[in-house]
Amino acid sequence: MPEPLIKAENIKKYFPVKKGLIGGTEYVRAVDDVSLEIGEETITALVGESGSGKTTLGRIMAGIWMPTSGRVLYRGIDIHRDGMKREVRHRIQMIFQNPDSSLNPRMKILDILGEAITEAEPGIKKDELIERATKLLEEVNLHPDHLYKYPHELSGGEKQRVAIARAIALEPEFIVADEPVSALDISIRAQIINLLARIQREHGIAILYIAHDLRTVWNISDYVAVMYLGKIMEYGPTEEVFKNTGHPYTATLLSTAPLLPEEFRKHSLKPIGEPPSLINPPKGCRFHTRCPLAREECREVDMKLIEIGREHYTACPFWR
Amino acid sequence: MEQRIETREREEERSGIREFWDRFSANKAAVISLYVIIGLGIASILADYIAPYDPYAFDIARRLEPPSPQHPFGLDHLGRDILSRIIHGGRYSMGIAYASVLLGAAIGVLLGVVSGYYGGWVDDVIQRFTDALLSLPTLLLAIALVTVLGLGLQSLILSIGISTVPVYIRLARSLALQERNMDYVVAAKIMGKGDAYIMARHILPNIVSPILVQSTYYMGLTILIASGLGFLGLGVQPPTPEWGSMIGLGRNYIYAAPHVVAFPGIFILITSLAFNILGDGLRDALDPRMAKYIKRGV
Prior knowledge:
The structure holds two protein chains of two kinds. Chain A has one domain: Rossmann fold (3-Layer(aba) Sandwich). In chain A, 31% of the residues lie in helices and 24% in strands. Chain A contains ten helices and twelve strands. Chain A has helices at residues 54-61, 86-91, 99-102, 109-120, 126-139, 156-169, 186-203, 214-220, 238-243, 248-256, and strands at residues 4-18, 25-39, 43-47, 69-74, 77-78, 92-95, 174-178, 206-211, 223-228, 231-237, 306-309, 312-314. An eight-stranded mixed beta sheet of chain A has the order 6-7-8-3-9-10-12-11, sandwiched between helices. In chain A, strands 2-1-4-5 form a four-stranded antiparallel beta sheet. Chain B is mainly α. Chain B has one domain (29-48, 78-293): Orthogonal Bundle (MetI-like fold). Helix content of chain B is 74%, strand content 0%. Chain B contains eleven helices and no strands. In chain B, 44% of the residues are buried. Chains A and B meet through helix 2, strand 6 and helix 4 of A and helix 1, helix 8 and helix 9 of B.
């Protein structure tokens, strides 16, 4: 991989949870010592069940949340320390899961896009702004008529297109897309995913694609990181991870994923029980309580990522 | 092109208002209340032309005269025409209410939004301040403030306005707390927008409806407070007509001449009730779910 565009180093995010009046404070370890690199113009998928910490990691890498420890470097600049400068700020954007809450219901589409456009070009004239907004809508295949509508007059897919248009208005180099299609109708998911992929190619944007739908991950992402209980279990090029799976957790995800080509569902592993609490995550390998292949050592040894192929890492030394 | 877009824009705005009006007008009581409030407002503004007599002209010889065709509401203890005094008094009673609601809402919403948006120590400071204000009932707080600020129209408005501030702080804070986590607020932050911009552009417009409803309810309450202060002699000073002080001055004659107290009382009741019913109507037409945040004005 070339020099990464954005690099998360040893990110930890603990959310304090008060336990009664005198119970003291416990911590939800949403993200627990995770490092991730994203190369320029690549799509990296971050997959895992809900509660795995993927959204938290995404928000930290977008600069919205402060990590408890660790840092995120964008071209060598720590975005949480000196990265709030506008130039850097504009280079990182985000697309949200629910387009209903990501577009202000009181603003017309023109004003929603206008916010981003004036942020890029303060003092832009009104007719130029309309022109730019029209171009943005064209890029996401929306008719310019939509400029004068309110979000509630648009369908879910159209709203998500507007959200994508807003994200690219500032010409970012990195976009965090947090489950951008999971709130949408199945019938239009593919369109939005294809749009995202096209925008990514045309603008040369790096995307962190947070998802739990492995089908779309297979379709568009270059790399995959699999998260479980705040830790990365496996990381590698998408094809490697899907074809030469290196972790039993990934295998359980693949075997239970609907709509995936048959060849990837060869593993017949099913996870045992429910995910444990993030407040007291299991010692040793995080997955051992649910792993159908768990051994005695898995309870004790803290698993580190080991390289098992070109750019392919896994946290399980026993699988394969 | 430009022209066409503009007309459509206007049509859409109109259709939004129409939709609201359709829902609002289904509530007959609220519509009647609205007309009552508009009617009282017009009567107050045009008091000089509508009032049959000079509200200050007295005729001691005819004091406490009961209602008659010439004086439908009768005469007060100085022989002044009560109807004329009620019409002129509406200026003060409602004018004070409008001004103090505006003042209380402006201060309260500003503090509440700042409190909810920033959280942390800013929130703590503002909330402890609010607790202190809330420790006294609204009327008592208003009395305390008038005592401190002194008599007079300005200090009256200021006192009543400030006494309603805590409710607006609580309301605006809880609404802002929800808004600040909305993705469009996060999106604006990522873009690099400043806090003041986000509060003005994203948070305020999305919380105006509940605040409008709260203000309508509180119009009813502030009319009662203003009258209460007037009754106690802490409000508008005689001989200026004001509904509360009219009752206060007439209370000695309540057995001999009940009309002196009854008519201003009826007007206070009707106006306060009308604002509360209008508040219900607005709430239901705008969004019935907001009921859990809002405190009624009575």
